[in-house]
Amino acid sequence: MMEGGRVRNSRVSSGMLPLLALHAVTEYWRLDRKPPVTAGLIAANTLVYLRPAFIDRHLPTIDQVWFNPYLIVKHRDMKRFVLSAFYHLNDPHLVYNMLSLLWKGIQLETSMGSYDFATMVVSLLGLSQGTTLLLAKSLYLFFGYEKAYYQEYAVGFSGVLFAMKVVLNSQSDNYTNVHGLMVPARHAAWAELILIQMFVPGTSFLGHLGGILAGIFYVKLKASYSGSDPLAAIFRGFTGLLSWPLRFVMGFFTLRRRRITGGGTVGRGQSTSGVWRCQACTFDNSGWLSVCEMCGTSRGGGDGLLFFGSSNETQSHDLSLEELRRRRVQRFSSR
Known about the structure:
- About 55% of the residues lie in helices and about 5% in strands.
- By secondary structure, the protein is mainly α.
- It has 2 domains: about 1-235, Rhomboid-like (Rhomboid-like fold), CATH 1.20.1540.10; about 275-335, no CATH class.
- The protein has a 3-stranded antiparallel β-sheet with strand order 6-5-7, with no helix packed on it. The protein has a two-stranded antiparallel ribbon with strand order 1-2. Strands 3-4 form a two-stranded antiparallel sheet.
- A hairpin with a 5-residue loop joins β5 and β6 (about 285).
- α7 (about 115-145) crosses α11 (about 205-225) and α7 crosses α12.
């Protein structure tokens, strides 16, 4: 998350976006299982930054979505609360955050599943933004830090990324490299917070700290709650509700294919409208046929036919086995 200040309206183009696109596409297509939520988040952040013509008129400007605790509290501006995470100042800011999102998202979504990962991102977004707002308000009320934090302008996905880093490393006992410094993976987010503040000017300390605290809170909450994620259940129910009308319409207009010829079976005893049984060989024939498809006995020739669905059942003498065999051979050899 980057602060605004004097660079609020600047956009520095360094040609890094092609690098981001190439790296993201290469890493994504190398995976056996493609994480759709991670790809969607990267695409959404990139589109908001590039502002192509087909969505430009629908997007607010960056000046309208800066995360500013004072404006959010005063005007109850939820637009700033949510959308500020998806805006970035310049190419390096976007590329750094999206590469971090790609690396963390692939690992988390692959292990958690797309539904749980999506609900986690929504939860971390709300928790990190809310924690940052609470910290800024508290510092203003108790210590009088108004200009420094309460009226700070910031944008970027970094708060969520710091929270994701905490979740990713919460169960790890290994060491990891943080900008050249080897630290325990569980403390990597704290080390990165300090190093970024020391060497990257203009970053939002409260935004990153809020993300770390949000990640810790999320991990503790998940550990204390035994059972499926309630937010994930809500997402599943919501998507099921949206897909129900489509399933209903498709089921309503699906036509069952009906066989009208050649569908008889020998020895079927139930009555079926439009089907007649050959009295010679007991084969059930379609009402469209005038002779038995199995033995060639005429339907109206008095050789003994049984019509299903009729009360007048005509009996006839039985044919010999030799005569039945001869009729079948003659019938099928003539085709």
